[in-house]
Model the fold of this input.
Amino acid sequence: MMRESDQDRRERLYGPMREEGVFTWDWMYGDEYALADIHLISRDYRQELSRATERLGHIFAKVVPVLQQADDSLLLELGVPEQALRAVRTVVDQTQPTVIGRFDFAQTTEGLKMLECNSDTPTGIVEAFYVNGHACRFFGREDPNAGMDAHFEVAFVSVLDAYRQRGYQTDQIWFSSLDWHEEDRGTTLYLQDKSGLSARFAALEDLRVWEDRLYVKEGDDLLPVDVLYRLHALEKLALEQDEDGYPTGAHVLSLIADRKLAVINPPSGFLIQTKALQALIWNLHETDEFFTSEEHAIIEKYMLPTYFENQFTGACDYVTKPIFGREGGGVVIFDAKGGILEKDQEEFYWEQPMIYQKRVELPEIRVKTTKGLFDGRLLWGSFWIGGRASAIVARVGGPITNNMSYFLPVGIDG
Done:
């Protein structure tokens, strides 16, 4: 009997998903992205990821209302663009400062350590909530994310209700992303389907600002937008201009600040997105301020020493990260003497302010790829949906997890 090749097995797993049209980017830029392999974890470890997510979510949610009332100077120091200062003060629902967030964790000898929180425009959503379940059925394993796609509707309906209670118009709902970007468009359409909302999709390039209102251009018509889900980073929006140099992004942010546009994720999610907030939280922890003793214990357990200035030279290995970097962009790993061990090779994010964070090594893992066995490093993502822990996602790459790191399905062992 002929042995099934790795490529044939991979096609049996991902071919049907491609045909369904929900997950079509199992190959990205000509390279394998989604692996036809599975990593097994214990039920206890699965629960620990949820606990860490819930507890850290509480810490970040507690800080946001204080930041929304802080002086502009502090917000600017945290990296909030000047054009967004009024918008990020918009209060929607303080129990869930973001609708869809994702904490990234390293599994270390000292337990789980949070590396960052993606709370503005996280991805990996389709992989965690849709693909992982298909892969678990394929390999005959229990899905650690089973049924968690239902969290989206609860979270979207809740934030929409919060907007309504604050007097917003919520009739015309649009989901938007770059139309040409396969992953962004696919992720946005998946969320639109799972949101439970009566909504339509619009490409970002079809959005228009006209007479102090946001519209979607459809042929010769301009269709009003009351609520916008945007898979588009707020810091990028702040800088956008039209062909004539008009600051359209700043205008959209003013619509948000003036309550003429409801956005998901809400602007408060952007305050959590900046890695500078980790430095602020760690400073409050070290000076024994603001948090309760129980909250200080959570910070000590799950967070890493993080600073605005280098406190690590001569003491331990450390990492520099741009405050709004994504997918490992602009990250550099240093040894204790300041020598470079690893450096991201992408061109983006280098112009941003950096934070300094104690380095922890991602655990080693060996996975099957179409090119053979690959020895990489494992990064965990744990979604924070509507204020509660949700699905998990595993990525495998080098010491710096970047945009082309592999997606690895996860199952429960036993």
Summary: The chain has a mean pLDDT of 93. The longest strand covers residues 372-385. The two ends are 30 Å apart (CA to CA).
